[in-house]
Design a protein that fits this description.
Layout: H1 4-26, H2 37-55, E1 72-79, H3 86-93, E2 100-106, H4 135-150, E3 154-161, E4 165-166, H5 170-177, E5 183-186, E6 191-194, H6 208-212, E7 237-239, H7 240-248, H8 253-256, H9 268-281, E8 291-293, H10 313-320, E9 330-332, H11 339-345
Parallel strand pairs: 1-2, 1-3, 8-9
Antiparallel strand pairs: 3-7, 4-9, 5-6
Length: about 350
């Protein structure tokens, strides 16, 4: 006969599959959050990034001063195909190696041609992504966490896609970002400058209510009310403090990780980051994206794709212009066949 402790252990072991099967049907959805193995991996990465940032936060003075080290920009490439504009980006980065880092999150289900040069060895541990799902949020958070761990000098984090092209020189971009700090925190030996993030944050988008209810009625409550819900561009440039706020977040992620019932209004990556940073530190954000996108004639959630006949010097100059005091840094979407044309007109 089995001993009593052994029988109890055996019974508990057999009951675990039943628990996982029936619990979602018994417990309220808002109080039941099993962590998937992928999420456990991500949480470990985010924890290491938080610890790394706590133990290594160099005091950085403006690059215009004499104190080293100089701050860096981390370029985060989110891609599900080959990086078509590698030669253009190579020219953009040339001669500025001490001032930037590159990190690439590629969909592991896609076979890519490994880029060389400054892109060599810059792929991070990646996972599969899908449209209309929170996987694009997870991929971006992995990029941010990896960049935070990799180099404490990374102070700005620029998220771009494989279809993005730079509209200005690296020096213009670097000087623009680090030119005007919002505040400065002084110590006995140095000054820590605080800069603003460039992320689009909109509260008056026409389909805002449909987007808010994409997961079902009242699902976002109580963490996110409709009055707090925001939308914006998928691509942004965040400061280090805001990048840390993103990877530390658990409360809002529990809502935005839920599957959408209405996939036509489901763009989690355009909702999560604007909502989180609006609630965390709206004054520290420009509420404006530095990535130009043309939504004229958009189809199935995709913006206008520029053709060879459209590319000219006039187009590049026009894409730089904005309705605010900010100048656009990047533009999308450009097809891979436009490399020569875009490179010829960019300056």
């Amino acid at each position: 006969m089995f001993s009593s402790p052994l029988l109890i252990s055996f019974t508990l072991l057999l009951s675990l599959p039943l628990l996982f099967f029936f619990a979602p049907q018994i417990l309220p959805p808002n109080h039941f959050h099993f962590l998937l193995p992928d999420e456990l991996d991500d949480l470990s990465l985010f924890h290491r990034a938080t610890v790394a940032s706590t133990h290594s936060s160099p005091r950085i003075v403006s690059h215009l001063g004499t104190t080293n080290p100089k701050p860096k920009i981390a370029f985060l490439f989110l891609t599900n195909s080959n990086l078509s504009f590698v030669p253009l980006w190579e020219k953009f980065f040339h001669g500025n190696q001490p001032l930037f880092n590159i990190y690439i999150h590629s969909d592991p289900s896609i076979t890519l041609t490994p880029p060389g040069g400054v892109f060599h060895g810059r792929f991070i541990a990646s996972k599969k992504t899908h449209r209309a799902s929170p996987t694009l949020i997870s991929a971006t958070r992995r990029l941010l966490a990896t960049a935070i761990i990799d180099d404490p000098l990374n102070q700005y984090f620029a998220l771009v896609s494989q279809y993005c092209v730079p509209l200005h020189s690296f020096n213009f971009m670097y000087n623009y970002l680090f030119r005007n700090p919002l505040t400065s925190i002084s110590s006995f030996s140095s000054t820590q400058l605080e800069y603003q993030s460039f992320i689009e944050i909109l509260s008056d988008e026409p389909n805002l209510f449909e987007r808010y209810g994409a997961r079902g009625d009242d699902v976002m409550l109580p963490e996110v009310s409709f009055e707090e819900f925001r939308v914006g561009s998928q691509f942004f440039i965040l400061t280090r403090r805001h990048a840390l706020a993103v990877i530390r977040d658990r409360k809002l992620w529990r809502k935005f990780r839920l599957p959408c019932l209405n996939v036509d209004s489901c763009y989690p990556e355009e909702h999560y980051f604007p909502t989180l940073l609006s609630m965390e530190d709206l004054k520290g954000c420009s509420q404006f994206t530095l990535t130009r996108v043309n939504w004229t004639g958009s189809f199935d959630g995709h913006p206008h794709l520029y053709t060879p006949l459209e590319v000219s010097a006039e187009l590049v100059y026009r894409l730089r212009q904005s309705n605010s005091s900010y100048s656009y840094f990047f533009a999308r979407k450009f097809s891979p066949g436009l490399l020569g044309a875009v490179d010829g007109y960019r300056c």
